[in-house]
Prior knowledge:
Layout: E1 5-14, E2 17-26, E3 32-38, H1 49-58, E4 62-66, H2 84-99, E5 104-114, H3 116-127, E6 131-137, H4 143-148, H5 152-168, E7 177-182, E8 188-191, H6 195-199, E9 212-213, H7 216-221, E10 236-241, H8 249-256, E11 262-267, H9 277-295
Parallel strand pairs: 3-4, 3-5, 5-6, 6-10, 7-8, 10-11
Antiparallel strand pairs: 1-2, 2-4, 7-9
Amino acid sequence: MNNQFRREDVHFYSSGTKCSAWLYLPDGNKKCPVIVMAHGLGGVREMRLDAYAERFAVAGYACFLFDYRNFGASEGNKRQWINVKQQLADWNSAIDFIKKDDRVDGSKILLFGSSFSGGHVITLSSKRKDILATISQCPYTNTLASMRTLSPVSFLKAFPFVIADLLSCLTGYHPVMLKLVDEREKAAIMAVPDYKAHLELIPENSNFVNKAPARTLLEFVKYSPGRYTKDIESPIYYAVCLKDTLVPAEATIKCAKRSKKATIKEYNCGHFDIYLGDYFEKAIADYIDFFDKKIK
């Protein structure tokens, strides 16, 4: 373990379900700001979010990185079920839990979300008054913009799975599953040209499962977090990937400009590239600089 921080296994409850988290604590006895973090669509904490948390911890921040219920190391009897309302409840439970930990400064709560959770932190920042600052990385903001990136062939192939999955609800939770990510024109929730870059984020022995109930596609129809950007009063950093094949940069920038205290930074990379290599190094340096300025 890095001698500049330690990582602990922590559990909290969200609506009665036990959720797993890693708490990163910088060395020393000083209470420090805490960054609450969770992954994007179907992701789990070891898919490179731990790399961000480690760098934040070296920079002096505590990090509370959790898996949603039904995913990864967290419990839940509806595995792989992606539900916006429940995920937002998990976020709120995580924030409320870590605020009470006497090893962190509960008055300095920061948020970090990426992709689908980038949309979640937009929603949370607009509704909670205890968030000091937020980073929203390549965020999902706009339903129509993201739907337009879906290949018509993929949509047609996925549609029967959605119908079958909805019918399965009549007899309990017996989901009809779709791949989360696959190549363009395949039946998948994220059927994109750069799907292999997503697979590169998955380490060996990961809890990641490349599938989700087909009804997940309907979550996009009813959820457009970009509508809340105008209501955010605290500082928020939008990291925009200009070559994004999932959440078009133009739509993200349009939404981001509505926030009163927005910092908008463009990165000349794809949706999954910002997790690795030079783009990761540039982004994490920018994020630490942003948080450093906001906690002073």
